[in-house]
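User: Hand in any protein.

Assistant:
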Amino acid sequence: MNPRPVAPKPITGKEATGELILDKFPAFAGRNLREAYRLMLKSIREDFTVFATLSGAMTPAGLHHSCLIPLIEMGAVNSLTTTGANLYHDAHRTIGHQISEIDPHGSDLRYRQEETIRIYDLGFSFETLIKTDDFFGKLMLSPPFQKAMTTTEFHYELGRAMARYEEEHRISPPSLLAACFKHEVPIFCGAPQDGSIFLETLPLWKRNRNFKFSLDIRRDVYQMAALQYLAQKEGQTAVWIFGGGVPKNYTLQGEPVLSQMFELDARGFDLDLQICVDVADNGALSSCTAGEGHTWGKTSADCVEKNSVYLRTDATLALPFLVHALRNEIPAPRPPKRLYRRIQEAEELLDREVERKLKG
């Protein structure tokens, strides 16, 4: 072991962001930021298949425009698991509504009287919700949605419609749904019934006898496991976790599905990067650290020993610096993996393995 000396050079103001991260953050949370940057660089340079997760409602804060979509466009993110909130609130801007900074310590009673919806220090009008509900409702009445679908299929069709709408109305930058559609990045949602897009299906279901839309949750879980199994067969896999919560565990549980439920040889993720504000010792950090995840088969031993970091901070604070550094260091995008078009191939591979196991 050759310990690295803690001897950062004085900051001059001329450093590139990557140089700043690598040299000026030698300890504590800063060191974890440095390690996060190292692991993101490693994932891209060594062509890991990256399964990213995004929790909460970060699209109102514009984190998708500033950070996530640039990562998708540079081929760094190959699959996304997110909350329904991130997809729903993203559509507000697409259909012409504004999200603004407001005082988080202002009077919520007054905000309610003014019909202002608050997400901590962000605000928008109640009319925005009604118009967005109407927008998604009209989309979901169209023929492509009149069947049972997985969340990846559902979001792909929504993305197709959003991309067409944005092109017709010359809207830029794109929504997260449209960006993932164009780059064929599958979007999973572990709790769709906890988001307003799915809530809009309730009045459609009650008012329209011919409304046939439903979600095939069992196949959704199977698709996640299948894509991870395919990716493991072809190379190394990484999970980038931005914010924890349901998206985190929904992605990580693909590995126990393979090893625990189907008794297949699945090694777990080869790299685990987590940016979250929760602590582990009270159970709040869903699926917890890479080490604890290893006991469930979610991460490999090599991941725990060499390729994992938990950066305990708000993703909205860390990601802009990390993405800026990555874009400077890797200006040319890597070819997109286009995993959405490979879902059927992945399912068929897992079908064969499961059938062989059942017969064996």
